[in-house]
Amino acid sequence: MNTRLKFSAVLFTALTAVMATVSTASATPDAKPLLTNVRVGAHATYDRIVLDFTGPAPDGTAGDVVPELIADGSGKHVDLAGTYFYQVRTWTAAAHDDNGNATYTGSRKFETPSLSNVQAFAITGDFDGQLTVGLGYRRATWQSVTVLTNPTRVVIDIGV
Question: Which residue, of 30, 91, 141, 151, has the fewest CB within 10 Å?
């Protein structure tokens, strides 16, 4: 095979790979993280809440200590066990698909008796491309929010 044919074959292979990548990427332009599960776990120095997602990582995540939990949209107070409250907001995430079907079918509000400090969890918002959750806990302490991939999850740690 001459050099010109080899170059053409390599170029064709490269272009085919690029086009396949573009085609795959454009096939799911609206892909967003969808909540599928909520897990809790007690550790020696912290309580952990894990939000499991399908799809890509959220575009953004922020956690804030708040004086009370407020339901997104309605503005109503969310009654949750705890003296302190931590709100975690994720952008481009949801607990429902594009047809409005729940992707997370577990309880949207529950107590966490197996944890040392965190007393309760609630989904406080799921619309306009934001998923918001709240935690109630007993003692003032540190908090952290971490986004992990492969699989996609948001990890919330509250010191004990």
Answer: 30
Integer Cα distance of 89 and 84 in angstroms: 17
Domain ranges across the chain: 1-29, 31-159
- Around Cβ 113, how many Cβ atoms within 10 Å? 8
Distance CA 104, CA 36 (A): 4
User: Cα–Cα distance between 79 and 97 in angstroms, integer?
Assistant: 27
Global pTM? Answer: 0.81
Average pLDDT over residues 20-45: 74
Pairing of strands 84-91, 143-148: unpaired
CA atoms within 13 A on the CB side of 151: 12
Nearest to 69 by CA among 137, 130, 124, 107: 124
Structure tokens belonging to residue 91: 């952008």
| Residue count (the chain) | 160
Q: Residue type for 36, please?
A: T
Neighbours of 153 (CB within 10 A): 19
Q: What percent of the chain has pLDDT over 90?
A: 80
d(CA 156, CA 50): 6
User: What are 9's two structure tokens?
Assistant: 């074959």
